[in-house]
Design brief:
Blueprint lengths: L5 E2 L5 E2 L2 E2 L7 H4 L3 E7 L4 E8 L5 E5 L5 E4 L4 E14 L2 E3 L7 E3 L4 E12 L4 E9 L1 E5 L2 E5 L4 E3 L12 E5 L9 E8 L4 E8 L4 E4 L1 E3 L3 E7 L4 E7 L2 E4 L19 H8 L9 E9 L4 E9 L5 H4 L4 E13 L2 E15 L6 E5 L11 E5 L9 E6 L1
Parallel strand pairs: 17-29, 23-28
Antiparallel strand pairs: 1-2, 3-12, 4-5, 4-16, 5-13, 6-7, 6-12, 8-11, 8-16, 9-10, 11-12, 11-15, 13-14, 17-21, 18-19, 18-22, 20-21, 22-23, 24-25, 25-26, 26-27, 28-30
Length: about 375
Amino acid sequence: MRGEFTSWGAGILCGMLAFGPMAHDACANGRSVPVIATFSDDTLVEGEARVIGSRPLTLVLLGENRQRMFTLADLADVEQIVEQASMERPWTFKEAGRPEKVYLEGEYPLVNFLTRLTLVNGSVVTGHVISAALELRGPTGKKKIFLQRQIKGTKTETLNDLVYLRTLRMPHAAIADGRPIHGRVEGFGTVISVSALDTLRGHMLFARVTDGTRFDFGTLLPGRYDLCVLTDTHALTGLSDAVPSEAANGAPLQKGDLDAIHAKFPLADDFFNDRWILRLGGNRAHAKALVYKRRADYYEAARWTPGGFLWHLEVWTWHFAEPDWKVDRRHILIRHKQKGGERNRTLLLNERLGAVTPGTELHLQANEAPDGTWQIIRTLD
């Protein structure tokens, strides 16, 4: 058996997991959930698992060029599917800096995996896992359990010698009926993109846009989502007070908090020369600042934004740690390369776009209600 797998009592094994580069709240990831782990040699481990570190389980989904992140509480089942298994010959480059290879004696086993996740909303996603590690607490103590994108053996092993995690099942997870968030936009120009901040998990999601008016996020996990719509004339957004569950009991924001955050804001390292805090929501344990940033003079600006500028609309999360405010994360709602001659957008705020729950169908109209429905924040110039 390979050295990557650690024994845990008689016949019980552990393997390797991987996580992506985007950090998630350490408190959320640190929660343990009951699991049953089954390995390729039919051994079984039952106990409670938690994510090690602050990064969630991350997949690059098939057919998508972006990462999706999940906490263990989002999952009902994890399955490792063998994508390709073969015996390979070791090799080295003939000369440094040249692609020609020289193959050596012997063979080693190599296995590539797909990872399939069943979510608590009943949907299933499949992709390639990126770096992660779990701690599994069982009857005999704590051990690490691993899930891998790829296993590479040694020249003394065969494919049958490799032992890997086959399934990780959450027996207490209740699968609920998944619901979508979708809608249409009228009177604000052509829809370019629609994003959503998952206020419970701190993840960004992006909708499928059709006909320049309709958007659909598909089936979503339970929670509340702050939405943001980019059109060719406007940016429409919602900024709610919804926060992760571990910050729900935080003290309310106080008079002077926005000024205090403004004082710290210029000290944060950032690519953008010009940036403004436009609104503040949440509470003192998890404050959400709506931020507009722009920059015109950067490397290759003449190529990407000739005569224009690059701009972002973001949400920065902060927490109050006596006596100062500390910045935690930055979520990009809109990233736009605006060329010269392109119309400056008007940023509008609407409560209907904040804390949206799955099952909601939105119909956003420019002339749908009194003036108070759409609040003008600023021109994005």
